[in-house]
Amino acid sequence: MTRPxxxxxxxxxxxxxxxxxxxxxxxxxxxxxxxxxxxxxxFLQVVAALPEADGFxxxxxxxxxxxxxxxxxxxxxxxxxxxxxxxxxxxxxxxIGVAIHHEAxxxxxxxxxxxxxxAPLTVWLKLNTGMNRLGFRPDxxxxxxxxxxxxxxxxxxxxxxxxxxADEPAGIAAQWAAFAPVxxxxxxxxxxxxxxxxLRHPIADTAWLRPGIMLYGCSPxxxxxxxxxGLRPAMTLQAQxxxxxxLAAGESVGYGATFTADKPMRVGVVACGYADGYPRIVPSxxxxxxxxxxxxxxxxxxxxxxxVDLTPCPTADVGSTVTLWGQGLPIETIAAAANTxxxxxxxxxxxxxxxxxxxx
Length: 360
Prior knowledge:
Blueprint: E1 5-9, H1 11-24, E2 29-33, H2 35-39, H3 43-49, E3 55-58, H4 61-69, E4 76-78, H5 85-94, E5 97-100, H6 103-111, E6 121-126, H7 141-149, E7 154-160, H8 173-186, E8 190-191, H9 195-200, E9 208-209, E10 235-247, E11 252-253, E12 259-260, E13 265-270, E14 287-290, E15 293-298, E16 306-309, E17 321-325, H10 331-337, H11 342-348, E18 354-357
Helix pairs in contact: 1-3, 10-11
């Protein structure tokens, strides 16, 4: 791959952010969330960067089985559980924990003989306390627990829920009030704390934390960036200038001629576009760093390229490094310009962009 664009992954930042999550709840263990290919960072790279992690939460059994094939022995749990009998059996055989959130899954468990040679299948029971996405209603919990405990080869390990507004003024009080009495009656270890709850709601200091976005250095809160929370960016998206142009006053840049120079200026063409995962929607002036100097985009982002203003960096030329987000430029800033969130930008980085472990 010679096209000059890289997503630099910073393992030290991942480790730092994980430790910060644990510091907010020192009595709890933390299940590092690595779904969506480690939020676009590469799930294998993230696991390698987190030797201290207590376990990992994923979405796809394929990824979990790959980790087992690579010798990973720590707890793994599939946040949406299994989708058919074959997947259920594969998880049981490989020691992969599963969330149970629906009657159909429960019936599969009750009617599927599990491998006799496997250890008990670890089950996390999910309750719907107000998110109204996945999970059993709290008033059904005790009946579901009784059925799970009657299934041979199953170990009910954790009671879990997911907060809808931990990052917003509404907070977690209503959902916690629905969850906590059930958890107390059942006496199970609980897992409720996503990144926002870890950082803002000490009430959610429970047995298993589930840090997600904070692992990658991005804030879960609209009004803050990760650095303000003590987080470090785990990805720096960088490309190089592959061309320059000198514009006269009145000349335009890019599709639709959405940017017109009001004076003579140089622009640089960067080997990054929306096919690489950079948002097409951002306006001119969206911040970039050119050889470390802050500047901004000009014109419309195209499929494979975007243009930047070289006025603040007159010595920049072909081969100069352009930072699109990461170290020195918060991803939240770019997300705000695109009217989205940092999660989406991370996860949208295309497979054609090489992930490179940064040794520094």
